[in-house]
Amino acid sequence: MPQVTYVSHDGKSTTLDVPLGTSVMQAAVLHGVDGIVAECGGSCMCATCHVYVREDQLAKCPEMELGEDAMLDGTASPRQPNSRLSCQLVMAPEMDGLVVNMPETQT
Amino acid sequence: MPDRRVVVVGAGHGGFQVAASLRQSGFDGSIVLIGDEPQLPYQRPPLSKDYLDGKIGLDLLLMRPESFFADQRIELMMGVAVSEIDRAGRRVALSDGNHLAYDHLVLATGARNRVPPLPGIELDGVCYLRNLAETQALQQRLAAAKSAVVIGAGFIGLEFAAIARGKGIPVHIVELTERVMGRVVCPETSAYFAAAHRASGVAFSFDVRVERLGGEGGKVTHVALGDGRTLPADLVLISIGVVPNEGLAAAAGLAVANGITVDEQLLTADPAISAIGDCASFPSRHSQRNPVRLEAVQNATDHARCVADRIVGKPHAYQALPWFWSEQGALRLQIAGLTTGFQDVTLRGDYDKGEYSAFCYAGDKLLGIESINKPADHAFARRLLAAGRDVTPAQAADLGFDLRAAAMARG
């Protein structure tokens, strides 16, 4: 099963098996990973599942849709070029080994 | 001396968040989270959307796995109701006959369905959509339904209608007032949503009351309207709003007025009792400090964080900007701010295409912004309104005006 590594703002790292078709946000919440809030439950409505994707892995992630691009302008921590909403990062085989850094705050 | 034991009554979004935020803020005392439903704390918004539609299961509804609560030393008491608050003794009485002492009590009791006093309301096939059990029952009904009548054209009724139409079930919505979502959106947005739902096959009857629900053999078969018409229905969804669960507080002598009355720090008149979320009536910075009671996840969770901050010794007035959302089929509605009392509306974007925002004003003051399939506007709206910045109607209407720049400006 593909794996995703979550790195908290203070550097703590957690690696999870994430089934194909499950989002990076869903896996984090299911396993109680701190640092992803996902207040709207994954509807791309709240921008509280913000992550920074390792730069060299951005191309492996699903393309960003307009709604996500827009909501990223409303994140609590600054948007960077590698910012994504993890509810939109649905696991695909090529994303195995993905590393996401979590921002200082989501709210 | 910090509080040693915080007892939270209600394990919805607000109650869960108080517990989680207290630990995150370093609170080291005991935390007890009491919920009257048997399940682990779960998210409600997907109930009327992906969960009802069968797109996600219970595992994805849960706020956190069971291990989270053990790890965080949050004691869960699920399937337990609080029957009384003993303020003098600082303890609550539980439905299982036990008592539980508290140093601070957080009431996150939420709201319950408003049930109309209609003849036939007890018939089999009359459904609600607020908690998990109701949603599961509705899901089963929906699988076999031949025709559905929805009473009340608010968020829940419309979200349900979109899902039922997706399954090919005829839906007729009966609404007492003249338009959909009349309590929360401007007439222009009501008209847009009603037209979109009509286009997907939903029938509407406005300005009409329901006389009674009729049935055979204990099962609902039709809905009789005040204008003499009868609508066939083997499924009736009652979605006419909710009433706050304020009874516990009232019985304990705390002030209630459409919700439990709290101050700007969300504290009741008893310094050992706070109230948050759907059950709390509070003076909002975004309503000129008039008391408001909001039914929203954002409100519940931001209230929770504010109360957690106070309990750990960092008190502050609640300031957060209210925001709301609804998903109805392909329609995404996002609202920032409180638009109650608006007088004028300025539209920005392409209304006919269903990609626009409605800027709602009282005089010159921008109260709130409704965005329809315009998430970028919503993201900017939240920043603008939170910062108290104004956008004039002329600017709002001008697509050449840079909303992003206005929202992102510093200071």
Can you offer a commentary on this structure?
The complex is a heterodimer of chains A (107) and B (411). The termini of chain A are far apart. A five-stranded mixed β-sheet of chain A has the order 2-1-5-3-4. Chain A has 107 residues and is an alpha+beta fold. Chain A has a single domain (3-101), classed as Roll (Ubiquitin-like (UB roll)). Chain A has helices at residues 24-30, 66-71; strands at 3-7, 13-17, 50-53, 83-85, 98-101. Chain B has 411 residues and is of the alpha/beta class. Chain B folds into three domains: 5-112 and 243-311, FAD/NAD(P)-binding domain (3-Layer(bba) Sandwich), CATH 3.50.50; 126-240, 3-Layer(bba) Sandwich (FAD/NAD(P)-binding domain); 330-408, FAD/NAD-linked reductase, C-terminal dimerisation domain (Enolase-like, domain 1, 2-Layer Sandwich). Chain B is 24% helix and 29% strand. Chain B contains ten helices and 26 strands. Chain B has a five-stranded parallel β-sheet. In chain B, a hairpin with a 2-residue loop joins strand 13 (210-216) and strand 14 (219-225). In chain B, helix 1 (13-24) packs parallel to helix 7 (297-311). Chain B is globular. In chain B, 47% of the residues are buried. The mean pLDDT of chain B is 96. Classes of the chains: A alpha+beta (107), B alpha/beta (411). At the A-B interface, helix 1 and helix 2 of A face helix 2, helix 7, helix 8 and helix 10 of B.
